[in-house]
Write a structure and sequence with these properties.
- Helices cover about 55% and strands about 20% of the residues.
- The protein has helices at about 5-50, 55-75, 80-105, 185-205; strands spanning about 110-125, 130-135, 140-145, 160-165, 175.
- The longest helix has about 45 residues, at about 5-50.
Length: about 210
Amino acid sequence: MATSGPTETTGATQQVAKERQITLARALNSLLWAVGIPVAMVLGAFLAKVTWTWLGVGVMVVVGFLVPALVGSFWNRAGAATLATVAVAALGIGVPHVLHETYAKQYGDKVDALVVDTANYGNSVRGKDRYVCRVVDTSGKVQDLTQLENCHGQFERRQHIVLYKDPHGFFAPWAEATDGRGFDPIGVPVAIGLFVATFGTVLYGGLRRR
């Protein structure tokens, strides 16, 4: 009686090897997307804070729309897509502030300054206040700082503060009431957590794609 045992074994072995290749390729592809998406959002936030503002905003918008399309529609993982979209959106909103503060305080040149005037421009339509602090540093340069430079109405007229100026001119000065180069104990861990959450949910969606 004829037997096809060796042929069947060879075919099964080839099938297993093919499945392993597919699994490995899917894992690598998922890993690249999981790393690339939060990195692209951070890069967009960096560009938005420096000279290329609209380019950075454009990158952030593209990433924000890419996540639900990729994870939700293409990979068909609705739950992971929802979590990843929320995480990457929160990352885009929170990381510019943390990135600015961390960079300025770690690498910026410390300059003493004096608050010469403060103002609060209320917006009755949006219901938000816009604070402005006019400061003069030891070189005699006068500049107006907003919430983007850490002026939230916490400074008073004639108060001595510290400005951290970017030696390369990428970022605007960062204002602090005292001299301290420590990390934000809340902002930095939150930003890292959002980065990890984005990475994890995208990776999960890619590995479990249907």
